[in-house]
Design brief:
By secondary structure, the protein is mostly helical. It has 20 helices and four strands. Strands 1-2 form a two-stranded antiparallel sheet. The protein has a two-stranded antiparallel ribbon with strand order 3-4.
Length: 488
């Protein structure tokens, strides 16, 4: 078969047929709005399914992290870029319709959360002070790609629609992961922890995803009687997958999300100031409890949550990084992805040994951490106190936007519209207390951008839809039309 495909005549026929079918498909999308919307939803579904970083083919070759992977070959890189270009070309008829209000939307985002765009810009500029300019620039462009796609999703989709897509992407991840854990343990079982990791890179990210899945399906089961049996079944399945991943931190994450679901009706009755005060107290207590449980109370972790060996030894690491490394470049940091570079040997900025690694004491031995094990400290290492301050301001504005949605009493808001921003916001915070995935090209940064953009645009989107519903109660409102007309 391979020799047959390499035949020049056969290869030209296959390529020619592929181009013809592609053009016919493109023409159908151009003229059929429903088909175009369906293809767009499918593309967003696959993006959100793939973005956590899956280990089974072909997803590692298609993930944006491959754009700066040092082991990636040139043909594979070219194929990945061609794939992105093809997807963009297929979606271009739909994008021409949905991006008519681009300037108007960006102006609202800039006013609503200017520090988000400022942080993305600083990531790109950090290539100028990184010791490995080319590598930092590639990583920054990948980060920009994730950010642009996430901005589009936050602009295009309501939180209600996004919830439906997220629930089923997480369910699919869990089901496929269960198959690999039970049938293909060489892929689905984490050898170090002897726990499920499924099709994900590690057990801890998989557990975090299942904590989110459990919370979203639980909320659906409590608030939507339609197909409640399915919601309950997927809630229980997600909890079982969470338990099988053996991550204490993820269990704390789920408890935080479940607690939010329980108090959401109470919070909705409060005015903004009291709700903000309550959420801040909730975050302080939750973060403190998470750190205490995962770092200090080993007896609680072992007896109640299941011991997670990856949660030990972080406090000495953080102290060392602050005193010995951050102090050397406190203001602008080492550049995006410019600190942890073990392939540089003794020139690795993180190294404290000649083998190019950072070795830290742990019990009776030593361990070599591959990252800071804290997403917020990772920002300081990459972009210094200046970059962290810009992110912190964006973080605060996003929190304010999420709380405003939570207490929103506008009849155009459904319950999921109000609570999903805060659920995703908490999902961003808690895993990054012990792992460094905040500004990685994964679902965490994607969710953060979606919440930041969505909370800036959603009040206007709801107000316009409500206005048009009153003017034309007999007509359904297309999800993009009201916003586009306002821009025009």
């Amino acid at each position: 078969m391979k020799e047959l495909l390499l035949n020049p005549v056969i290869l030209l026929l296959v390529l020619g047929s592929g181009i013809v079918y592609f053009l016919l498909f493109y023409n159908a999308i151009s003229w059929n709005n429903k088909l175009a919307s369906l293809i767009e939803d499918a593309a967003v579904f696959m993006f959100l399914f793939m973005i956590p970083g899956l280990s089974i083919e072909p997803f590692p070759k298609l993930h944006p992290i491959g754009l700066y992977n040092r082991q990636k070959t040139l043909p594979s890189l070219v194929a990945q870029i061609v794939f992105y270009a093809a997807v963009l070309l297929v979606l271009s008829p739909q994008l021409r319709r949905t991006l008519k209000d681009l300037i108007y939307s960006l102006s609202i985002i800039t006013v609503g959360n200017p520090f988000l765009l400022g942080f993305i810009f600083m990531v790109l500029m950090s290539a100028f002070w990184s010791e490995t300019t080319d590598y930092t620039l590639k990583a920054a462009l990948s980060f920009l790609f994730i950010s642009v796609v996430s901005i589009y999703i936050g602009k295009r989709y309501s939180f209600e629609k996004l919830d439906k897509i997220l629930r089923f992407t997480l369910a699919l991840n869990g089901i496929v992961s269960a198959y690999y854990a039970l049938v293909v343990p060489s892929v689905g079982i984490n050898a170090t922890k002897n726990s499920w990791q499924g099709i994900n890179s590690h057990a801890n990210p998989f557990a975090a995803l299942m904590a989110l899945s459990s919370a979203l399906w639980l909320f659906e089961a409590l608030n939507n009687p339609k197909r409640r049996w399915l919601s309950i079944a997927l809630t229980l399945f997600s909890l079982y997958a969470l338990e099988s991943a053996k991550s204490a931190g993820a269990k704390v994450n789920f408890l935080a999300l479940a607690s939010l679901l329980l108090v959401s009706r109470f919070l909705k009755r409060l005015n903004f100031r009291w709700a903000m005060f309550t959420i801040v107290i909730f975050l302080v207590v939750g973060i403190g409890l998470s750190i205490v449980v995962t770092e200090n109370l080993e007896a609680i972790v072992v007896d109640g949550l299941g011991k997670d060996l990856t949660l030990t030894g972080r406090t000495p690491l953080w102290e060392y990084l602050i005193v010995e490394k951050i102090s050397l470049r406190p203001w602008l940091g080492y550049g995006f992805h410019g600190f942890w570079q073990p392939w540089r040997g003794k020139d690795n900025p993180a190294a404290n040994a000649l083998d190019g690694k950072l070795w830290m004491p742990s019990g009776n031995g030593y361990w070599a951490p591959p990252h800071a094990h804290n997403g917020f400290m990772e920002i300081i290492l990459d972009l210094g106190l200046v970059g962290f301050s810009i992110f912190a301001l964006s973080f605060i504005m996003t929190l304010v936007g999420a709380v405003r949605c939570l207490v929103q009493k506008n009849p155009g808001y459904k319950q999921i519209d109000s609570i999903l921003p805060m659920i995703l916001f908490l999902y961003v915070i808690f895993p990054n207390l012990t792992i460094s995935r905040l500004t990685e090209p994964t679902e965490i940064w994607c969710f953060y951008v979606i919440v930041a953009v969505g909370t800036s645009l959603d009040p206007i989107r709801k107000r316009l839809n409500q206005k048009e519903s009153k003017e034309r109660p007999d007509l359904p409102i297309p999800r993009e039309n009201s916003f586009d007309r306002e821009a025009r």
